[in-house]
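PROTOCOL LOG
Step 1. Enter all chains and additional molecules of the complex.
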Amino acid sequence: MRIIEFLIFFPFAVALVLFAMGSSERVYEARKNLVKGAGLAIMAAVIYLAVRVLGGEEDYSFLTKAETANMLIMAGELVLMGVVIFYSIRYKKIYAMLLSIAGTLPIVWLDLSGRMPEGEAHFHIDNLTVIMCLVVGIVGSLICIYAVGYIKDYHQHHRDYQERSNWFLAMLFVFLGAMFGLLFCDNMGWMYFFWEITSVCSFLLIGYNKQPESIQNSFKALWMNLLGGCGFAVAILYSALQLHVTNLSQLLTIDEAAVPGVMIVLVMLAFAAMTKSAQFPFCGWLLGAMVAPTPTSALLHSATMVKAGVYLLIRISPMMKGTLTGVLVTLIGGFTFFAASLMAIATSDGKRLLAHSTVSNLGLIVACAGVGLPESVWAGVMLIVFHAVSKSLMFLCVGAVENVTGSRNIEDMHGLIIKLPKLAIVMIIGICGMYLAPFGMLIAKWAALKSFIDSNSVWLVLFLLFGTASTSFYWGKWLGKLFAVIHKSQALKDTTHRSEWQSIIPLASLVVAMCFLFPSISKYLIQPVLSQMFRKEVPPVIGGSDIIVMLFMFALVVALPIAGVFISRQHGGITEHNTRSYMSGVNAADDRHFLNSFGDVQSVYMSNWYMIDFIGELKIMKPCLFLSTAILITFLMIIVGRAL
Amino acid sequence: MKISKSPWVLHYDGSSCNGCDIEVLASTTPRYDLERFGIINTGDPKHADVFLITGGVNFQNRMVVQQLYSQMPDPKVVVAVGICACDGGVFKECYNIMGGVDKVIPVDVYVPGCAARPESIIDGVVKALAILDHKRDRMKQGLPPEEKEWSPKNGEGAEAMQQQEERIQAQIQASDAARAAMRKEQEEELHGGHE
Amino acid sequence: MASIVLKLAMAVISILLLGPLVGGLLSGTDRFLSARMQRRQGPPVLQPFYDISKFFQKKAYIVNGLQHFLVVGHLLFLMLSIGIIYAGQDILLSVFSLTLAEMMLCLAAFSASAPYSNMSAQREMLQMACAEPILLLLCIGLYLSSGSFLVKDIIRCDLPAIVKTPGIFFAFLIALPIELRKSPFDVSTSHHAHQEMVKGVTTDISGSVLGIVELSEWYELFLMVTLTGLFFICSNPVSLVYAILAALIVLFGLTLCDNVFPRVRWERMLAFTWGTTLVAGGGNMLILMLLDK
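Step 2. Run joint prediction.
Step 3. Record the structure below.
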């Protein structure tokens, strides 16, 4: 299929060209146009793919004979290992090197010694692939377009960092290509190769500015992802040697009662997925990865790479139902959802809060995948789609605000609706899209709740309840800061690039449009996924009358600000008198100052409520890590022991 | 329905010895029960109709009294409770007391007494309610308010008030200027040489 | 077609007529009862209606241009919340609409950018975080006992929901003071005169905008009464009487608690509500799920 090859190779080609172009001022225009053109091409390609798959056959499987491709991939794996060894020796972090060797060499041995079973299709496309491709293609391209303008500003603000922006943009495209490869693969060995590319890409991009903190955090990301990769390698080894299966779709047809060993493969795959998706106890790498420039955070660490992990979990979801692996996955997922949202309450750094929120939402998707019911898979896929769009929008906005005001602290975003109205409105759309009814995330959480109840796991329902409550707390605080109208404040000069707007505005419109379109998305995109996965007709998860009520709610939410503009312009009775806010009568002529007890003027400063002594990271991170590690190790031992 | 059926009271203590305040609070107790008139003691001027002041006005609290009065929406009435609020009481000649409340805001009802008895207070409030209705009717007809623009009752203390206000304005301007300078510096740092 | 028209009619009537009337009367009764409990005469039962008419007769002093439409949004979503229940639709959607409504009120307070409003709005959000698990638990409890989230199915069950979900009902009773802003959980905005943060989220709201907030409080009261009643309704028509009776008894109990208990600190409120959700709610769910097996 031409489209698959195009989608995998074209980003790599663009990356090469971008790298070769260099990063001087002269090529800036050409580079911008190249990125925009490439982005549009990728978007067009994924939409074309979607239309063909939805219109035509359900499954595409092909490429059964692929010796040359196999050779290339083995070579590629060795190259990756070489890269890791090089950097590990240069920065004296031997553990990364050892993990990489442990993960790569057995797979290469497996293939070279001919023990890898052959004869099955290497690529497989179904509706789930199409959905993920749409997400990666559209959101990923928009982020790359954003990155062009952003990286220029970034280097202007940090003149001490080495300018490698051509390399940066090239790596973003390499990453896109690797993601497409990962999504199309059915052969686990090939999937593993693309998986490792994403790990190494992430490592290189986090360490972009070569500061000691970035190097430290990039190695943290590297070893955690490589550890997951080792788990993946163990799964492939066991599956190839004991079960004689290398294809994921074939693996999913094995009956657990007949072949108990398949549980080992599943739990190792789940382990790999959970490290990639930064669940407890491996969430540290995602939090540390926030030192990277914003497009990295948006692309890798919220919209696409971490979604690779949950994608894998959703693929194996039907098999996990009712098994101990499923219990492990839901336990870790639910716990992560709740714990990360508590820690997000105590964070005032915008990017760190978004990182905690990402970990938290991924936890919810992981829990949905672990339950294994059709409704939970529906909820999981909806969450993936809506989360990718909203979260990347939030990251891009925080990056833009940081470029204009110099700060990404939420405290400094007080009164943004007057200071930077356009950015504030987009951020409001993003935040509402993350947790408010009737936006998409809430619909997905609703379906998740229904599925958790049907799966009879009380503790999962409780995690969801408490997690939802804490989630609304931290988002609400941020939303409130944006809405504050400070007396006598004026608009700042908005220096956001046009290319940044060209990516932010489509994303924001996508958030809004998808809420209206979610019935169609559900019917045409996601329901077929359920039918394919569970091999039976699944009734629609959200019923007809519910959809009508939700659309009505959404229309109301959209109509309200528009009506509000008219209401506030109305004269007579309402807007007659603007007065001071209440400060016990000691306002000093305006709302920004008051008279203190000496009779002197003092500035008013209001901060948000962070509860740091109560649920701050310093307090609860260590107990959470300890608890989750204990759960993970216990369950792994039980599951592997029972299967052997 | 008449506005006097639901008068909410803002109770403020200027420089009172708290005697009149205790009597005001006593009016809310079961023995006298202000709430049977629908009166609620609210602490927020934006929600209040009746401004119940006790104690005299001095230089420190005169701005507070003005602020609270200005933050009350129309129509509103002021009841000065106790002789100190009426004209300064036994402290009239003190160096720090400017006088009664009417030195700062227009007063509608004076309730003398030291301390004023709850019965008098209730009587005064009920009289104020009639005035409130009257003001509301004038507002509905679009007539301007009857009290003239407030100015100090006599020249006493005007100079000191002027100085106080100038000092505060200067401090506010200094604070605003410092903030603007800081912002400018930040912008220079961020976007120096930017298009 | 006829059923849709009937549903819509039910929703509209409940919103426009029943809500304000019942809410206002109950609110007035609450003040009257409080006064009598304190051995005072108290205001007439129709006092809330006089209050609202006063608000609309005052000039509104606004602090910024966003407050008005946010408060109107708050009212609209509360009305929608009630309408969804009376049209027989999904009760989870009703709770989500309620959450959205409360968020809009908090935003109206945040937009004032003033110290008391700011802090009250954050406390109000904390209260929402305490009450939200219990409201969701309420929906789950009704689902577990009737098999559906739709109100029209819940009211047609053979047994009233309270038989199977007493623990969840108890947790809901704990959440009611939070929703109705009464002691011991009136940590942010308090009803009547006992003040914690001046007047909480309404500190910088006045005039007709405040009138809209007062009206929405009536709607909220009506909504809570409806939710209480849902636990007692079943297919037997007599259960309606029991439901109304139960709602009145619960309101009386709330007024009694309001007069007896002092306000608690926010840590204690959080610990108590979440603890009750865990023990009473979680325990109830566990027992139901075990019994179903």
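Step 4. Note key features.
The two ends of chain B are 62 Å apart (CA to CA).
The CA atoms of residues 183 and 189 of chain B lie 10 Å apart.
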